[in-house]
Amino acid sequence: MKKTLTLLFSCLSVAAFSQSYDKGAKVIETRFDIGTFHTQSHDKVNNTNSTGAAASKIISASFDYGVLPWLGAGIKFQYDNYFTSKDTITHTPPQADEIVKPSVHAFDPAVFADVHFLRRDHADLLIGGTIGPSFFSYHENDASDTRANGVGLWIDFHFTSRFYFGDHFGINLSAGYNSFNYPDMKAQSSTVPSIDSFSLKGSGGYFGLGLQYRFGD
After folding, report:
1. 78 Cβ contact partners less than 8 Å away, ≥ 6 residues apart
2. What is the pTM of this model?
3. Which of 25, 28, 110, 195 has its CA 20 to 30 A from that of 44?
4. pLDDT tens-digit map of 190-205
């Protein structure tokens, strides 16, 4: 009887204190987010400023390693595909006007650190920050092949809730704040090597849903 009670107590103790994240943990995560941003640009040639709004679909993949029982760090790769609408480029006759739909993308490799402040058997709540370079690309998709490119910095502060169905697979919900800055954007076309030089920055929020897999027992 004594041995049975000891075994039962041991099992209950493991169940009570088992955690979804610990030192040495290895987690891969993929996520799809929607972000909305307020943007500001400065035309360096004409010395003018403008503001606007943007929204994007964000696909990301990351690897998270448990440095401490409550602290994780890792790498992340993110691809931003901005929503755009059709526009008309007016030309002088006899050249016909063009209807174009620009393509706007950004690729963001980064490093991050997270604090896992609530760790349970099938739940892991965390807050963290991300920082890295951002490679921005704008393509007008017009007859003159007008493009703009720039390299900048992006930062991210996020809150994520991870939930596990078993020991390995799970889903996650995330929301956060994102900021980017491209200080030296260059625009050009097939007919004009250098059209304009400007800076672009923005900030806003995002939310999304993803999947994760935890390695180990």
Report:
1. 58, 59, 60, 107, 108, 109, 110
2. 0.85
3. 110
4. 887 777 899 999 999 9
